[in-house]
Each structure stands twice: as structure tokens, then as C-alpha cells.
Amino acid sequence: MIVFCTAKVKDNTMPLKLPDLPKIQIKQDTRLPDESPEQQFDAMILIIDGAEETAGIQTRQPAWLGGIEADCFQQHPESSNPAVGSRGGCRIARLRVDKGLNAFQALSLARKTLELLLSDRPRKLAVIDLAADIHQGERMTEAIIAGLYAALYQPPRSGRTTLEALSVESLDLFGPHRAPDISRAEATAEGNQLARWLTQLPGNHLSPGQYRELAESLARQEGWDSHFYDEQELDRLGAGAFLSVTAASPNRDAGILRLSYRPAGGTSAPLALVGKGICFDTGGTNLKNASGMYGMHGDMQGSAVALGTLLALSRLKFPHAVDCWLALAENHIGSRATRPNDVVTALDGTTIEIVNTDAEGRMVLADTLALASRQQPRAILDYATPTGSCVAALGQRMSGAMSNRRDWVEALIRAGERSGERVWPLPWEADYDEDLESSVADVIQCRPPAEADHLYAARFLGRFVAEDIGWVHIDLSAGKREGGLAHVPGDVTGFGVRFGVEWLSFLDNSLIGEK
Questions:
Q1: What is the 3-state secondary structure (H, E, C) of 387-416?
Q2: Between β-strands 43-49 and 4-9, what pairing exists: parallel, antiparallel or unpaired?
């Protein structure tokens, strides 16, 4: 991916280049090597059966494996996983795959294994699948590919010094099973990388205007249609919820960007992705303190994940139309800033009493969801940076999911399990709306007490989605986790791209009827 954009940064001009997926030559061979292959590679990963399946490996074990076991792993307990040794100048990792290994466990194990090998900066890497279970071997191989791309990712950086990047020239895959789906692993890796990179850009390098320019450049490259609803158009449409957030912005560059992917031959109504894109959040009149404001350049992660998901779907030539709606804004403090108890009118005519200007995300998403609903999509998936209460409820190992479709609950769990990006459905009950009643407007923006704010945020947002449209809201409590998560080693995880591709693929296969 090569996209150039010139972004104004205070007194200087900084060229921004969207990241390229690391170039790795991946070769596949459904045969096992006849001879010990360590002389051909700098590092190898041997996928073998766990302790409970040792009988399965007996019939498939190549003659040279015994020598490697004796030379490299004699000092490692059978239970150690992964284990690493050296032979003939090649670093070799033994990776035991236990029965019932799920996608999250496979991705986590891939990261741990690669960390042991990549510290030696190998150029040529091999994966040899000796697992008896075809599905376990494929899952582990796919996880290694995803983990390798995640490990090679380079975050945005400016300055006189540069960090030496890891580089792997080639990855050879051996095994008697059918080849894993490399295209899906690469597409979601590229989408994840884009989401992480955008989220890590400093706020003065990614204003709403700069973000729009980058996204539109990407759209031109990918052949997507685009339309930007600027503040003037949003004002004409009556999008008072969105504009209440941008009222104090010194730069009038905020708006809603719609990107449209249209595959050849696709005729059905689109699926829709929606993302919260607050490029910096001061809290507004309800000003954050110093610790709360630090890191708020990342409050646009939901939009970055939505954009990364669209890129992955485009790379996979997804057979149905998808619209991606990015709510791009900043939440500033100033003489024109919205205040608590102000009443504004949303795009669909709903009047909203402001309670806390630091709950700005649900305001920009309200009008964005209402605008997306007007297009009558088959379903909507939205992403937003986390409410503190969702992090308190689930921690940072999985994200919260709320949906207006009760029959989607089990499918959401399964999509999280299959993708390795786990979500957990949270309550969606109408009586929570009683706590959002206002004496001066149709609804209050949020409740003054902070408990269960993730549930109230979802109930508020659900008002702006038409009842006949299935909708899922993802509260990205796993979007940032110290030390990384699953296959991603960095604190910013890009969580949601793999899940989004899995979920929309499920909907594509299961939605009955087309509009």
C-alpha cells in the first residue's frame, strides 16, 4: 500500500505515508522434508501434537525429527511450550498443540514462539506442521503468519534517530495438510496494521482534516467511492448532536466521511461499518485532568478499526457492498463549547439534554448511525473506544458487544472465538431507558452516576438505529492492553479487524433475504 499525503503540522510540513504490509515471500509445500532442513533456514518452528496426542505423531514422525529432539530439546521438560534450541546455526522452536486449542490460544502461542526466535533476527523462517489434527495444524500455521506480520509492524515515528526494523525475507510452510488460508491472514494483518498505525499517530499529525485526506487517498487507491459530510452539510441535515461536539473546534475540518466498497456484480443493500473518530478529546467543558487527557489522541481508534476492516474486506474481494462511516472530530474547550444541560437536536429529530461533554463519542456516533440508517443497510457494526465501565466489567482481554438482536448473542461469541478477538455480549434491556429520561428533552445523553455506563451508552446509541436494521456495538475494552494481546505484541492492539471480517462474513452467509 503506497499513499502519500502532505499534512500541515504547526510550523512545518510532515509527509505521511500509510504503512506497507511487510514483504515476506511465503511458499507452501504439502510434503514434509525428506531430510533435516535446518541448513536451509535461520529459524524453524515445529508444530507437533500435545501430550495427549503423542500416539498420533508416531505414525507421521519423519526420521530426522528424533535427532532434533535429542540435540535441541533434551533438557526441556515435555510440558514446556514453546521450547527453543539450536542446531547447525538454526534456532528451532518446538510448539506443542493440545487438543481443543482455540484461535485466541493459537495466536497467543504464536506470539510467544516468535518472540523467542525473532530476537536473533532471522531472515529465512520455516514452519513444519507435524500435527495429526488437520484443523489444529492449519489454525496454528495461520496464527504464526498473523503473529509474524504483527511482530514486524513498525509504529509511526519521527526524529533524527530511527529504530532498526525486524525483517523476515521468506516463510516456508511444510505439511501434508491442505494449505492454510494465507489470503485471510494477510488481509486482516494489513487491516490490523493500519488500525494500529493510525491510532498511534500524534494528535497534531492526525487532525480530522489530515485523517480525511489520508482516508480519501486510500479510497482512490482502492477504488472506493467517498463522500464527506462537512459541518455545513451536517448543519443543513440537522445533525446537532455531532455539531455540539465540534462547537469549540478552532479548525472547521470535522465531518462524517462515507467510504463505499462496491464489488463487481454486487446488487444487495450494503452492510455498514461505523467508527468513532475523535482525533483528540479534552473532555470539553467537563475538562479532563492531566492523566485523563494523556493518550486521548487515540480516541479515534474505533474509526481506525472500521477503516482497517474495510481494507481487509476489500483485499479479500468480499462479495457484497460495504459502507464505512467515519465520524471525524475533536472535542475542544473554548467560549463556544457545549455545556451541561444544553439541549441539542439530533439528525433524526431526537432532542438530547447534555449531561457530560466528556461523553462526546456517543454524540458524534448518534448522528452517524442515524445517517447510516437512512441508507437502509442490511446490518450495522460500530466500533468505539472503551467506556471505563466496560473495562471494569471485562478487563482488557476481550471487548464488550451489545446488539438489538437477541438471536445474535451466541453467534457473536462464536465469531469472537473463531477470529481470536473475543467479545462478550452484554445486556440489552429496554427498562434501562427509564434511567435516560429527561424533563426537558427526549433523552439525556448519559446518567450522572458512572456505573454501567457502557450499557447506557449502548441504549442511547440504539435509539438512532432503525428498528428493522440489525446492529452491533463494540465497546473496545481490548483495544489497548499493556504488553499486547493474542498475536499483537504492542500495547495498541488494533482489536476488531479480525472480528469484523469474521462477523460480516457470518452475516453475509446467514442473512435471510436482501433489501
A1: CHHHHHHHCCCCEEEEECCHHHHHHHHHHH
A2: unpaired
Catalytic residues: 288, 362
Q: Are strands 399-403 and 470-475 parallel, antiparallel or unpaired?
A: antiparallel
| 8 Å CB contact between 46 and 94 | yes
Residue listed under C-alpha cell 466500533: 383
Residue 84 bridge partners (DSSP): 93
Amino acid identity, residue 72? C
Give yes or no for a contact between 42 and 123, defined as CB atoms under 8 angstroms apart. yes
Residue 10 burial (C-beta neighbours within 10 Å; 0-12, 13-18, 19+): exposed
DSSP calls for 230-296: EHHHHHHHT-HHHHHHHTT-SS---EEEEEEE--TT--SPPEEEEEEEEEEE--TTS---HHHHTTG
CB of 463 closer than 8 Å to CB of 347: no
The series of mean pLDDT values per 10 residues for the chain, 515 residues long, is 45 62 92 89 93 52 88 83 91 91 96 95 95 88 96 87 82 82 94 98 96 97 97 98 97 97 87 98 97 96 98 96 98 97 98 98 98 97 97 97 97 98 97 97 92 96 97 98 96 98 91 48
Helix extents (H) in 127-230: 134-152, 182-200, 208-222
C-alpha grid cell for residue 204? Answer: 497534531
DSSP H helices in 157-285? 182-200, 208-222, 231-237, 240-246
